[in-house]
Specification:
Layout (H helix, E strand, L loop, with lengths): L4 E2 L10 E2 L21 H4 L9 H10 L1 E3 L2 E2 L6 E3 L10 H4 L1 H11 L4 E5 L9 H6 L4 E6 L5 H7 L6 H13 L3 E6 L5 H11 L5 E4 L5 H8 L7 H7 L2 H15 L2 E4 L1 H7 L17
Parallel strand pairs: 2-5, 5-6, 6-7, 7-8, 8-9, 9-10
Antiparallel strand pairs: 1-2, 3-4
């Protein structure tokens, strides 16, 4: 999609509408789902801008996603699902800033999700000017730098992502964090604690489709994702995460995969805290 579309299925938990700013991503995450399924033909493409501004401007002007679907102006548009709006190429293209300007100046609500850390701060002036209609989120997976480098080699390190959230929060911008995928439950709980002071809301998930990702990445993976997925007591993790967030007084949502897993008993042989990714 080169314009705004309705997010369907479990992806709709992140946002009602989506606009994918780039063709793909250069963070190299070894758990990335976009290399399978509907976006697999795009993941191997060079990272280049893909937004058709004329089409998006028409959607905003007419307040329609398409001829059959009206656009609710209060529903946020997520940047992005199949790419990171603040991937490394954004430093040279500046495409995300152009997209944000188009959306915000036409009254849209926008939600950003990134692993780019401080890269988003280049647009701090724009975000501050429209702080009442924008929220910026970070995907937080690890607290240990070595694990982050092993699994997401070109993304910003965890501390940088948290630092960016701190700066955004202190400038009056709503912040949120996506705790998914979960590869090490202990680290996921720790990163929630570390970031909580500067995060307004959390979305908590799990690791999904480990077997498919194992086949996709083959020998590239530091540890089998199937092994991690099957070894974690997701119900216990979910309860621990909820207790932590409620103790911290934080708003949160539980993604579909984790909600389902929390209704099922522990699998035989599962471990309470899961397989450590640096084992």
């Amino acid at each position: 999609m080169t314009k705004i579309y309705v997010s369907k299925g479990t992806a709709g938990e992140q946002a009602g509408y989506v606009l994918n700013v780039y063709t793909s991503c250069d963070h190299g995450c070894k758990y990335c789902y976009t290399k399978q399924g509907v976006f697999r033909h795009l993941s191997a493409q060079p990272v280049v801008p893909r937004t058709r501004f004329k089409d998006v401007a028409r959607q905003l002007r007419e307040r329609r996603i398409d001829s059959r679907t009206r656009m609710d102006q209060e529903t946020p548009i997520l940047l992005s699902l199949m790419s990171d709006p603040y991937n490394r190429k954004e430093l040279s293209y500046g495409h995300t800033r152009d997209v944000l300007t188009l959306l915000l100046e036409r009254g849209a609500r926008v939600s950003v999700l990134t692993k780019g850390g401080r890269r988003c701060l280049r647009d701090l002036d724009l975000l501050c000017a429209h702080h009442d209609r924008v929220a910026v989120g970070a995907t937080l997976t690890f607290i240990t730098p070595s694990d982050s480098r092993r699994w997401e080699p070109h993304a910003a390190l965890p501390r940088e992502r948290i630092d960016a959230l701190r700066i955004l929060h202190n400038n009056g911008i709503q912040t949120w964090a996506s705790i998914e995928p979960v590869l090490d439950p202990e680290q996921s709980l720790r990163v929630i604690e570390e970031a909580a002071e500067w995060v307004d809301a959390f979305r908590i998930g799990k690791l999904n489709h480990g077997d498919a990702l194992d086949r996709l990445y083959d020998k590239e993976l530091p540890v089998s994702l199937t092994e991690i997925e099957n070894s974690v007591d997701w119900g216990q993790f979910g309860r621990d995460a909820i207790a932590l967030l409620e103790g911290l007084g934080k708003s949160y949502g539980i993604n579909h995969g984790l909600r389902v897993a929390m209704r099922h008993p522990l699998k035989p042989g599962s471990k309470l805290t899961g397989t450590r990714v640096n084992a």
